[in-house]
Amino acid sequence: MYLKSNNIIYHYTSLDALFNGILVAAPEKLGEICLWATHSDYLNDKYEIKSCSKMIEDKIKKFRNGQFYDMYIETKEVNGVDEIHILSFSKTKDYLPMWSMYGKQGDGIMLGLDFKSDEYMIKCNYMDEKDLSNFIDAKLNKLLKNDISYLEQTEILIGMYYQIFAIKSRHFEYEQEIRRVVNPNIVIEQVASELNPYSQVDFRVNNNMLVPYFKYYFPKEYLVELWIGPTQNQTLSTNSLRKYLNKHGFDHTKIINSSCPLKA
Question: 114 phi and psi, to 5 degrees?
């Protein structure tokens, strides 16, 4: 489930996003990169989390006459399921469908990020309804092992809770998505105001709707590659991006041109 450390993962985006927020203009130390974590209710597959959550709850409620149901609900409440935000990355490098979907039809950029700490990274699992049902059943059966402790049971239930944010439809399997799960109310490094727990949640307009998001910061050392989309003037873009990165202290970031066969 968890991503191994020192693996580069990718984030397809636009050049505007890089210029207007990803590279922080006046950063604090270890906060030179800013990415937006979108509220989990507003992801591409709007049913994925809710349908997975409902199936897990229904199965736990019926399992052993609801023996573990209250424990599971308590786990959800402690982890603040209603305010989860998601940062999305991909294991697919320089992949044409990803450029088309998330990289401005090939006119954008792709960030290559090497996370030094991977404790909050989860790989998405792509399943149909039958696969998901079998997956949950297998997890629940682990609760019945002989001599299993209360702590071990809790760990299994917590793991099931986080699976809500890792399950996706097989229709999205090409994305090979890696996620960082973020709850603005309990992020230690970026504690929200005690008077207003939503003080660090911002909003953007997308498809005529306000979408909540949370700014999440990373050290500049994480940005090890910057890829230029296949439909850009790659020679001129390389020259200007090199100067721009150097100006902001990203001398270590390697610029790479996409090799995808997509023409402007």
Answer: -110, 100
Q: In angstroms, how far is the first alpha carbon of the chain from the final one? A: 38
Could you tell me the two tokens for 114?
């090497």
> For residue 62, is pLDDT > 80?
yes
Cα dihedral 59, 64, 65, 71, rounded to 10, equals: -70
- C-alpha span between 50 and 105 (Å, rounded): 30
How do beta strands 210-218 and 33-39 pair? antiparallel
Tell me, what's the pLDDT at 241? 96
Confidence class for position 118, pLDDT limits 50, 70, 90: low
Which helix (H) or strand (E) segment holds residue 37: the answer is strand 33-39
Dihedral sign, Cα of residue 29, residue 34, residue 40, residue 45 = negative
Residue with tokens 């979408």, as numbered in its chain: 211
pLDDT beyond 50 at 245 = yes
Interval 180-200: pLDDT, tens: 888 766 654 444 444 444 557
- Structure-block tokens of residue 229: 């989309």
Amino acid (one-letter) located at 251: D
- DSSP 8-state symbol, 23: B
Distance (Å, whole) CA 96 – CA 83: 33
Helices (H), ranges, 201-252: 234-247
What is the reported pTM? 0.85
**Residues 214-227 pLDDT 10s:** 888 889 999 999 99
> Pairing relation of β-strands 85-90 and 33-39?
antiparallel
